[in-house]
């Protein structure tokens, strides 16, 4: 079970849709999250993309020297990026980080944002372009000289002179819920990421993707992208979920749903259908809460409960075939510690990492006898 965290480059705080309790997301704050994620034992971290976010490549590159093992899941954007330029960026990042790059293919789902970036392709055309993009991107990183005259992309003599550390190329992650997206995943990607939907819906996706991939002679790995609200008791966790949206008024929710509704993303449509914009139907499955999606695009659900409960829900998804979980929580620095302290002990092979030169006995109280710590070897 691989567990990733998240860099909130679009903002962070204690409440959704409110400046109250908001945090300044600058390089210092992101550095704190990166160091915490690595020291707590997370395997990697996702960096989001879009016009509301800091650039993921610049952000990830700035965090390479602050970490040693943490992997970075960074977006490429077919339709608004050259595949050969993206390949050079990937190879350089992978070399400078010693093989710690993972690629998140994002075709885009908001026509307004895409128009601002100069992309006028329809929904299915974006996936056609993404397929051609990946033919070139994967080909040059694998050492091939690529000629392609496609519907959307044409290159001649494309090549990459500096190979990546990861062979034949950094692993490719991707998420999308439409038939066109599933076909792209079946043909090209290494790991398919689903947003947090009820178990039976995720199981249907996995079955469809396995069948499509088999038709191409391929197999896929699977992951889940979901938020987490974990506390010492399940009752406390539900109170924290209620508090997270306590500053939202109905007009803010209406405005957010109107903006999100312009997307032609099937995944975004499915997220919105889980709650219908209503506060009274947010627990859509045991411990799966859709409140984040009232005002946030993309992943809109959270697992809510105490540590054993959240871990049990994660294991249920793992039984479907999911081996990678990309988690997040508000505020992201605080919640990373909660997940590591309360959830990790209940996941297989996911004990908190041992520290050297310190102790985990809590604060030393007055007159308390503390055994001498062994010197680090």
Please characterize this protein's 3D structure.
- The protein has 377 residues and is an alpha/beta fold.
- It contains twelve helices and 15 strands.
- Strands 1-4-5-6-9-10-11-15 form an eight-stranded parallel β-barrel, surrounded by seven helices. Strands 2-3 form a two-stranded antiparallel sheet. The chain has a two-stranded antiparallel ribbon with strand order 7-8.
- The two termini are 29 Å apart.
In total, the number of domains comes to: 1
CATH architectural group: Alpha-Beta Barrel
The parts where pLDDT drops under 50 for at least 5 residues are none
Give the CATH superfamily. Luciferase-like domain
Tell me the strand order in the biggest sheet: 1-4-5-6-9-10-11-15
- End-to-end CA span: 29 Å
Q: Which sheet architecture does the biggest sheet show?
A: 8 strands, parallel, barrel
Features:
377 residues; alpha/beta; TIM Barrel; eight-stranded parallel β-barrel; two-stranded antiparallel sheet; 12 helices; 39% helix; globular
What is the topology?
Blueprint: E1 2-6, E2 12-13, E3 22-23, H1 27-40, E4 44-46, H2 56-63, E5 71-76, H3 83-96, E6 101-105, H4 111-116, H5 123-141, E7 146-149, E8 154-158, E9 172-174, H6 179-188, E10 191-195, H7 199-215, E11 221-231, H8 234-244, H9 250-261, H10 266-275, E12 283-285, E13 288-289, E14 302-306, H11 307-319, E15 322-328, H12 332-343
